[in-house]
Amino acid sequence: MPLKWVLHWQPNAGTTVNSQIINEVTQCVESINGVKEGRWKATITFYKPMIREQALAGDFPRDFLGIALPEQPNKYYLIIRLQRIVLEADSSIQMIMEKLQSYKSRVSLNFEGFQYQLGDFQLRVGKVLPTHSENLRGIVMEVEYLPISSMEKARQVMEDFMDIWQQALSKRSLPGHFMHMEPNFAEYGLADQYTSQHTAVQYATVMAQLIATVQAVQARN
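Structure (tokenized):
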């Protein structure tokens, strides 16, 4: 399957994300001839165990992430970051967990926006919003390179594309930049050939960065 990088917007110190930035970013995609193809949406949910007997607390992961990706509507991805575990399950696992009442959904975040075609690349730019809220928590961008599924073989092409992209975006003098933090996929038992599990792990990494950014802002205030 095509390889992708998931990037997050890192605001400059003392600034926060706002909808004006996402408008500028989408205009920038269109200015380098990105063709709008439609909407996309991914969802991350934080789960906590519902432990009836405290003695059993050590038997359960303290928390984990559940991730729904638009390219795999029949699958659901579960990530336990502390143990570096990623699992691909049938999407019905969400109903099963609800019925068993073993884990409870604490908070869900939607990643949603527009998808663009740009030659051999597909770009998705989206807002990060809590479910049932318009309170902007961050901005993400997916860069997908359609011809290659080997991460090492595609690395140079991806880096070259990102140079062009950052150059185009820098002309707009926005208060921040997109960051790519590649997880150590081998820790999760994932190989060089790209899969949707790689995407799920990247979203978990982006999520951790967004939380760290919000906490840093709160600490300054």
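The chain has one domain: 3-220. The two ends are 44 Å apart (CA to CA).
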